[in-house]
Amino acid sequence: MDPTTVTREPQRYRFEFATTDPDQAGAYLSTAHATTTIKGARHTYRFRHVRLDAGTFSFDTLDHQASTDYDCGPFPVVSVARVHRGLRTDRDLGECLGPGGLVLHAPPSRRYHLRQESVFWSLISMTPQAVAEAARNRPDDPAPRLRFTSTRPANLAAARGWLHVVGYITDSLNSAPGFIAHPLLAGPMTRLLAASLLATFPNTCLAEPHHHDRTDATGTTLSRAVAFIESNADLDITAVDIARAARVSVRAVQRAFRRHLDTTPTAYLRRVRLDRAHQQLLAAQPGDGTTITTVAAQWGFPNPARFTNDYHGTYRQPTPPHLPTGNH
């Protein structure tokens, strides 16, 4: 029997490679790393890599029963790794991480040399541009320059915040993986991850505050932002898009929503989308093919259970009982 298996789901978001042959694993890893050296007993050897790829970010898990040395980079992406089993040693920095270790795995600015010993680890990656974009304040200014000053989380609270966001993303991927390519799911998830990454790992990617951030937080700004959101809730609009439509900075829009509505632009957008989903569900007829899961995903709610809870909490009624939940 062939010890190597490669599977691709009909949707392009999932890829899996598994083998019990270290030579096959070495050839596979060498496509991504300049030099890879694998040491381990052949009779107990196993390797498995699974990738979920949303296009704007990717989520990898790797189970490797061997001692492996890597010489690679600099990577074109920003990646955060968490060790679940085994040891990961950064031979340049002299850092050794065991289970629970959280680290900026591949800073885009440098090559790196790693040793991994019988590891199972997970990795979330996105482009430096996507991360820097999360720090943009004024719509027409260039994105701030991105440079990380540490590969470790700023503090324990920051690490917990990152893990909470990753848990939400992975739960969403697992609950409705076929919908991850939808722009109202992939885009917001990417921006959530990028903002969380900037809040977790010390960096220089900070836009300078401006006095107009405070003085522009007016009722007129709010009206322009609300009109834009309600006209474009079916699109993957960003905080920068909203600020541009309101003709102010991102922080000014955020202040305006806080000052006048005691909410955030993102929360307001989410409520508008929930209402659009509500109207669509009410208009659906039995047997017309409408399901709660597909409507939820269409409006940016990847987890059917969370959507149902939000729906009940907002409208004080369950989702329409004549409609099927639908397959994930």
CATH structural architecture of the domain at 4-129: Sandwich
Helix content: 25-40%
Shape: globular
What's the CATH H-level homologous superfamily of the domain at 4-129?
Jelly Rolls
Helix count, DSSP H or I runs of 4 or more residues: 11
Provide the low-confidence segments as ranges: none
Distance between the termini: 32 Å
How many strands appear in the DSSP assignment?
Answer: 9
CATH topology of the domain at 4-129: Jelly Rolls
pLDDT averaged residue by residue: 87
Q: What percentage of amino acids are in beta strands?
A: 15-25%
**What's the helix-strand series?**
EEHEEEEEEEHHHHHHHHHH
CATH class of the domain at 4-129: Mainly Beta
The helix-and-strand class reads alpha+beta
Largest sheet: 9 strands, antiparallel
Radius of gyration: 22 Å
Name the descriptors:
single chain; 328 residues; Jelly Rolls; 9-stranded antiparallel beta sheet
Short description:
This protein has 11 helices and 9 strands. The chain is an alpha+beta fold and 328 residues long. Among the domains are: 4-129, Sandwich (Jelly Rolls), CATH 2.60.120; 269-315, no CATH class.
